[in-house]
Amino acid sequence: MTRIVCKFGGSSVASAEQLRKVRAIVEADPRRRVVVVSAPGKRNNAEAKVTDLLYLCHRLAAVGQDFSGPFGTIRERFTEIQKDLGLGNGIFAELDALERSLRGECTPDFVASRGEYLLGRLAAEFLGAKFVEPAECVRIAPSGSVHPETYELLAQRLQDPSALYVIPGFYGADLQGHIKTFSRGGSDISGSIAARAIHAELYENWTDVSGLLMADPRVIDDPKPMVEVTYRELRELSYMGASVLHDEATLPVREVNIPIQIKNTNQPNHQGTRIAERLSREVDKSTEIAGIAGKKGFSMIALDKSLMNKEVGFAYRLLGIFERQGLSVEHCPSSIDSINVILDSAILGEKRDAVIDEIKRSLQPDKITYEPELALIAVVGEGMSRTVGIAAKVFVALRDANVNIRVINQGASELNIIIGVVPEDFEKAQRALYSAFVSAA
Length: 441
Ligand code: ASP
Description:
Blueprint: E1 4-8, H1 16-28, E2 32-37, H2 50-62, H3 68-84, H4 90-103, H5 108-127, E3 130-131, H6 134-137, H7 149-157, E4 165-168, E5 171-173, E6 179-181, H8 187-197, E7 202-207, E8 228-230, H9 231-239, H10 250-254, E9 260-264, E10 273-276, E11 291-304, H11 314-324, E12 334-335, E13 338-344, H12 345-348, H13 352-363, E14 367-380, H14 390-400, E15 407-410, E16 416-421, H15 426-439
Parallel strand pairs: 1-2, 1-7, 2-4, 3-4, 7-9, 8-10
Antiparallel strand pairs: 5-6, 9-10, 11-13, 11-14, 12-13, 14-16, 15-16
Helix pairs in contact: 2-3, 2-5, 3-4, 4-5, 7-8, 11-13, 14-15
The site of aspartic acid has 13 residues, from helix 8.
C-alpha cells in the first residue's frame, strides 16, 4: 500500500478540539501514515501564533528583558491541549527546559522550533504514533534549502509502511547539527520533503480553507473554488499573491510527480484543490482559465526610440543598468520601437532617479515615461495556448467595464495574460474578468 503524507497547519492544531478533528481525519484513511504538524496557530483573530510568541520571548530574553508574559501564554496553550486531551505530564518538563534555555544561551531558530516540537510530542501521544525528531533527519543547507541527504535519512526513519509517524514541521538541523528552521510557513516544505522521501502517492496539506479560489475573495463575492490547478498555474497565481502554500513547498514533490491536495480540516469532505503536473481532465469550458489574481505596487519605466529593433544590444544595455543598481526586473514587455520595464515599486524606491538618468545618458531614448503606480492582473490557465479567443475576451471585458489598459504582457509560457491598470481600476478590472470567464462560463 502506498502512503499519504498529511501536513496540518497552525489553525488545524490550534486547540484540543482541532486535534480531535486531525485524529478523525488520520483514522479515516489507512494510507495516512505520516503526519507533519505546525505549531499551534491562532484560534481567533485577537490571538497570536505560538511561533510569534516564541520569537518574541527570544527577542526579550536576548536583551535581558522579562519574557514571562508571552511565555505564560505559550505555557497555557500547550497545557490546555494536554489537559483537554488527557495526555501525560511530560510537556511540563519540556516547557521548563525551554524556559531555562531562554535564560541561557540559545538561538532564535532553536526557540522558534519548539512550537512544532512540543505540538509534535503531544500529537504523537494523542495519535498513538512514533515521534520523529527532524533535527536527526532533516538537513538544512546554509542557504535555507533542503540538503539532498535529507531524503535518504527521512526514508530510513519512516521506513515501516504500517507504522504511524508524527514529524514536527518547520525545522531540521544545519550541517553542524544545530537546530535550523526554514523560513516562515516552512512546515509546508517539511511535508513536501517527507512525501518525496517515502515516495508517497499524495501530499495532503490540511489548512483552514477549502483549497484555492479562482479569484481574490476580498474583491469577488464568493469566488468559485479551484478543483485542480497545475504547478505552473499555481506559480503564476501565487506570484500575484494568491497562495495557500509556502513558495518553496511544491518543488520537492513536483520533481518526482507527487500531487498535492489542499484540504480543509474544518470541512474534510470538501474535495479541496488538487495541484499536479497535469490536469487530470481535459480542459473544458469551465476550466478555460485556472484563475485570476492581481497585485498592486508596481512601477513602470517606458522607453520609445525609433528603430530600436535595429540597435544591437539595446535591451541588453537597458537591463544592465538595472543589474548594476541591484534591481530585479519583474516584466519587460516590448514592441519594435518601445520597451517597458516593470519593477516592484518598493525595490525601485530611491534608485529611480539614478536609473532614469543613466537610461537617458547611455541609451538616448526619444521618450521616457515613468508610471509610479501600476496594478497588475494575471489571467492564468494552461488551456490558453490551445484556446482561441482568450485575449479577445480579456480585452472586450475590460473595454465594456471602461478600464484603460496601460500595458499588456502575454507570458512566453503562454500560461497567462498580464495586464497593467491604474490602481483605481484594479478591482473593477478583476470583477469584469471574473464575470467574463467564470460567471458567464
Ligand atoms: N510555525 C511556523 C510559522 O508560523 C511554521 C509553519 O507553521 O509552517 O511560520
